[in-house]
Design a protein that fits this description.
The complex is a heterodimer of chains A (85) and B (348). In chain A, 46% of the residues lie in helices and 16% in strands. Chain A has 85 residues and is an alpha+beta fold. In chain B, helix 2 crosses helix 3. The model of chain B has no long low-confidence stretch (mean pLDDT 94).
């Protein structure tokens, strides 16, 4: 799973989906996660990167990451192999 | 050097349900190729464009479409004597029939050029014929039916279910969730716009629109898709954003290609959650948000003027995605003298 190629993400965490005109904003950690997803990093890789980089409790972050990724899917910001727009 | 042109424009009603006249004029004023003098053509004395002297150089009242073509022709002959009009851009659905009928005559006898759809195109895209139009050009259209009386509503229950959309033949639409609402909307809309009323299947989704221009030979000169971000209680866009939607662009170019549409148009689609597109309406003229296309890099009104004058127009290749328009309301202060002049003399 990765972020669709056409999704624009700014440094400030502003996300724009040009196909439907929707826009969102996220905090710096959200921006970092989205950028890693855009680079085709797996959710497991992102999870371990964040846990190694920031002081955060593993169980609560894992749940937050899962929720965040589900939200990205719900907003149709992600795609999987064979699903490219 | 910019070519000097006198261009007459209708649709000066820059109100909460705006006509496209003012954005069309702004687009023409932005043109680097033309130096335009704008002749406003108005129907009512409180159309704001009449008093917007930075955009409209002179305004003349013209008779309502219900007055017929003869009286319109007489008035245009008088206006042309004063202003020597090069191009006329009608912007209302209801007036288009008369102008299409007069297009050849106005060109030959008065030198007034227009670029309008043919009468067949105008009729085929009419709300009452939209299903047939969709079948012909391979576009999905919600099921719809014409009715002439509220007594017909209950008889439609074999084919339709609530909610359904009750639409006027020219303007206005409302969603009805039961018979009482359907009958109320029928009476309200038919009192304003006449019969028939169109009953249409309700399609859930997101409204996406395209402003476009065709050359009459099947080529799309320009097309810009937009999603409404803020919708007024009259269903009008108060803010919108340009989209990167190849499916929508393909539907537009295919439709213009197969219908050989001539002139400006607006396509209104409903995009369902399964990414299916239903054509809701075709407006046979530019929409009131056409200035967004100019802002995104495609000056459709300028291209229309060139086409009207018989010049070759190169199709636009791209536009800027993610460009927004945000409409605003503005109170002008107008001297009673000006209101008196347009009211009594019919020109200002």
């Amino acid at each position: 799973m990765r972020i669709k190629k056409n999704i624009a993400i700014s440094e400030s965490g502003f996300i724009f989906n040009p196909a439907v005109g929707d826009s969102y904003s996220t905090n710096p950690i959200g921006t970092e996660i989205i950028k890693m997803l855009k680079e085709s990093k797996s959710v497991a890789e992102i999870n371990s990167y964040i846990l190694n980089t920031y002081q955060v409790e593993a169980s609560s972050f894992e749940k937050d990451l899962y929720d965040f990724v589900k939200m990205l899917e719900k907003y149709k910001l992600t795609e999987t192999d064979g699903q490219e727009a | 050097m910019a070519k000097k042109l006198n261009i007459a424009v209708t649709g000066l009603n820059a109100i909460d349900s705006p006509g496209p006249g003012i954005p069309v004029i702004r687009a023409l004023k932005d043109s680097k190729e033309f130096d335009v003098r704008i002749i406003g053509l108005s129907y009512e004395t409180l159309e704001p464009g009449i008093y917007m002297h930075d955009l409209v150089d002179k305004t003349y009242q013209i008779p309502l479409p219900s007055g017929g073509q003869d009286i319109l022709l007489q008035r245009l002959a008088y206006i042309n004597e004063q202003e020597d009009i090069d191009v006329l851009i009608p912007n209302f659905d209801a007036e288009l029939f008369s102008f299409i009928k007069l297009e050849d005559y106005l060109k030959k006898s008065m030198g007034i050029h227009m670029c309008l759809p043919t009468i067949d195109q105008y009729e085929q895209r009419h709300k009452v014929n939209l299903n047939e139009f969709g079948d012909k050009h391979g576009i999905k259209v919600p099921k719809s039916k014409m009715i002439f009386s509220t007594a017909e509503i209950n008889g439609l229950m074999d084919e339709f279910s609530y909610p359904m959309v009750i639409k006027g033949k020219f303007y206005e639409a409302a969603v009805a969730y039961n018979y009482e609402q359907a009958a109320t909307h029928f009476n309200k809309i038919s009192a304003k716009w006449g019969l028939p009323i169109i009953v249409q299947e309700f399609v859930y989704g997101t409204e996406v629109n395209v402003t476009a221009i065709g050359d009459g030979k099947g080529t799309t000169i320009g097309a810009v898709p937009m999603r409404k971000l803020y919708i007024t209680d009259k269903g009008k866009a108060w803010a919108g954003i340009t989209l990167d939607d190849q499916n929508l662009m393909d539907l537009t170019t295919n439709m213009i290609g197969s219908s050989k549409w001539r002139g400006g148009l607006e396509l209104e689609f409903m995009k369902t959650k399964d990414d299916e597109y239903y054509l809701m309406e075709i407006n046979p003229r530019f929409p009131a948000w056409v200035y967004l296309a100019v802002g995104a890099g495609q000056n459709h009104p300028e291209a229309l003027v060139k086409m009207a004058l018989g010049e070759d127009v190169t199709p636009f290749k791209d536009y800027e995605v993610g460009k927004l328009f945000i409409r605003y309301a503005y109170d002008m202060i107008v001297d009673l003298k000006e209101f008196e002049q347009i009211s009594t003399l019919g020109e200002l």
